[in-house]
Amino acid sequence: MKVVLEKRLGESVKAQIGLPVASALMALVFCGVFFALTGKDPLMVYDSMFSGALGNDYGLSETIVKMIPLALCALGIAVAFRMQIWNIGAEGQFYMGACAATWVPLNFPDLPAVIMLPAMFLLGALAGGLWGLLAGWFKTRWLVNELISTLMMNYIAILWVDYLVYGDWRDPNGLNFPLTAAFPDAAMLPSFGDLRVHAGIFVVLIAAAVFTVLFKSSKWGYETKVIGSNPVAARYAGMNIPRNVLLAMFISGAVCGLAGMVEVSGIVGKLQHGISPGYGYTAIIIAWLARLNPPAIILVSFLFAVIHVGGFMLQTMGISAAAATMLQGAVLFFVVGTEIFTGYKLRIVKGGADNE
Amino acid sequence: MVTPLISMLGITKRFPGVIANNKINLELYPGEIHALLGENGSGKSTLMSILTGLYQPTEGKILVEGKETQFSSPADAIKNGIGMVHQHFKLIESFTVAENIALSDTHGSFKLDTAQIEADIAELSSYYGLKIDPHAHVWQLGVSEKQRVEILRMLYHKSKVLILDEPTAVLTPQETRELFINLRKMADNGCAVVFISHKLNEVEELADRITVLRSGVVSGHMTKEEINRASLIKMMVGRELNTNYDRKESHTGDVVLKLEKISALGDMHTLALDNVSFKIRAGEIYGIAGVSGNGQRELAEVIAGMRLAMGGKMYFGGDDFTNKTPREKIEAGISYVPEDRLGTGLAPNLSSVDNIILKEYNGRFAEGWRIKWQAAVSAAKHTVEEFDIKQGSIYQPVKMMSGGNIQKLLLGREIAAKPKLMVVLYPVRGLDIGAIEAVHKLLLKLKEQNTAILLVSEELEEIAALADRVGVMFAGKLMGEFAVQDMDIEKIGALMAGVTEDGGEGK
């Protein structure tokens, strides 16, 4: 008896759903071994993680708060990735969006919310969009690899925000901490009761719904799909590739910029050093695991938020919060590891010889 | 009795759902030229891939000079003296000839003795009359020179079994003759030459023995003495080939396409099109004969708007269409069926539905910002039915279909757009005989509907069967133009090789 790897003749829906679930379970078992080795009962650890992140209003609220920026950035990234444009600059576009949004309440603190919030939305999206567009322009004009340019521009954006919060924008009453003055109430997105979860969740849901429709039914969604799949055929069909690259980079950046705006306006209430703990990078993994599918992005970002918030709960058990990062890494590892089974399947052959 | 250099015994190769080779026996003797004949998909490539170590057979064994040998990689095959020249050359363009030849050197000494390698190459090339400059970079070479590099590489590695996959497809008749002389020389030196082809006349001329494959099994053997064309064709296709189509006499209409002294650069930024002028009328098929790589693709791309003309004018229906965008040309009714179907004409990972609307997603299949997917699905179903395309589902990636069905889908899409002009390159390359007939009939039907057709082909028979007028291309120039009745194979062959008898005016 031997086991052979055989190419699947068609795409298997069962495999596409089953494999990620199996990978997540394997990741839990894998990390469970480590918990067991350090003398903790893995089941207890997972129980407290998941009940911490999901078991009560507070935990759930925190989980959604984490999910909002992750999901928005991942949606933005998906727009570019669908065209095989590797925008890994979500982090920088997030910072630029947060920064431009902050400019409004800092300079016009007395605006009413009906003007303030839309202005912040607009500027946040515009700043992120232009930051993405710049990399797109380098690409179309001088064939600069966007992988490098977007990555480098992240550092510029992060340090630009640092320059502001350590310098001109620093709150004079802030005891020299690198942060701006707190936003007036009119610049804050409404939140639900006493919980921290805020209206940004609607931005996520609306964006996901809009992109679902655009990807599926619009001419633009079709163009990006064809360009991503075979740029030569796209050119042959008369599609304008440079214009699409610019547009995709702008939209991709704009959504990530919006994520930055939502974060400062929904949660933080000011601009500060390290406003994102790497949402833009985690979102790349999320977009990829979700296969650039908007509803799946919401699901995967929720899962990542659960792991993250659950990780904090672990600290009360004397386990380092790094356990959450380990779990995230393990999920990715197993998803990548089982990737081959979407195209291939195992077949058990009895008795050595190949029977028909 | 002589031991065969290679015996392949009972070779079976299964892929999921297909048996590519079924219990094939093949023996190769020193000194013989052995032709392997068969249609595309008959299992020739699979069999040779097994012999060169790319695939492992599911069953069966290979004996090298009587000893059973396992090839677990191409390196093993090279060590056992088996070399192959693939149809698409495996050369590194930016390396020199010598570097390319040394590339697959398995002797593995640390230092690369360039001078020694170059001397060896020079000796080999003068012995076989394969003229080549070992210092030249491969990108500077023409197709036939590249082939020489591939052949020298096999000889340099002291291969005893030389496999050539359709080596004449890229050659002029003169170059083919030269190649045949060299192959005979190699056989006389004790090599076994395997010559893969589907050109019967060449096989008849060259081969000592012929093995014919059909759908994965050996359908017949023949020796030089027994050669009989009719029975060869029968072995290949199981029935006889029909190229005498029922052609309605053409009543040609207005001039649809007129090119005036079009020049353009190729991918290497060298002149690929040199002052090309001709016109095509409605309902006319204009054939371009020539060895591929002489500007045909560039010509088609200029007409389709995918390549800029550096000089000259293109008129379409009387209007100046020089260097208009692909979109403008598509919308005006210019259709282009490229030679590279999956690389250019279709998006291989997308479904038939996605591919059917590729050219018209912005026209017939659009409603405001939306795509009319229902219309797209019914158009896909219609095309599949009308052109008898065999596939699992219209939602499957098109790359999973066979070559003939892929071409039918592509042609079906282009025909459905009701073009005024269709530019079609090598429409039957790689197709089996049934599909060839189907494609030819589609083109003739399109002509009857008054479409002007530019047919680029390397098969003179195909042009003779379909075209009304023929132009011959060589090195980016249109060397001459004939009505199809006046086609003279000898003269066209000479023009294809760039030889003009009367100083080269010809227009």
Describe, in plain words, how this protein is organized in 3D.
The complex is a heterodimer of chains A (356) and B (507). Chain A has 356 residues and is mainly alpha-helical. Chain A has two domains: 9-40 and 321-345, no CATH class; 56-318, ABC transporter involved in vitamin B12 uptake, BtuC (Orthogonal Bundle), CATH 1.10.3470. Chain A is built from 14 helices and two strands. A two-stranded antiparallel ribbon of chain A has the order 1-2. In chain A, helix 1 (13-37) packs across helix 2, helix 2 packs across helix 12 (294-315) and helix 3 packs antiparallel against helix 10. Chain A is globular. Chain B is an alpha/beta fold and 507 residues long. In chain B, a hairpin with a 2-residue loop joins strand 17 and strand 18 (370-371). Chain B has helices at 44-51, 74-79, 97-103, 114-128, 143-156, 173-188, 200-206, 229-237, 296-304, 326-332, 341-345, 352-356, 373-386, 403-416, 433-448, 460-466, 489-496; strands at residues 6-15, 18-28, 33-37, 59-64, 67-69, 82-85, 161-165, 192-197, 209-214, 217-223, 255-265, 271-281, 285-289, 311-316, 319-320, 334-337, 366-367, 370-371, 421-425, 452-457, 469-474, 477-483. Mean pLDDT of chain B is 86; it is low at 503-507. In chain B, the strands form five sheets. A six-stranded mixed β-sheet of chain B has the order 6-7-8-3-9-10, with helices on both faces. In chain B, helix 3 crosses helix 4, helix 3 packs across helix 5 and helix 14 (403-416) packs parallel to helix 15 (433-448). The chains are: A mainly alpha (356), B alpha/beta (507).
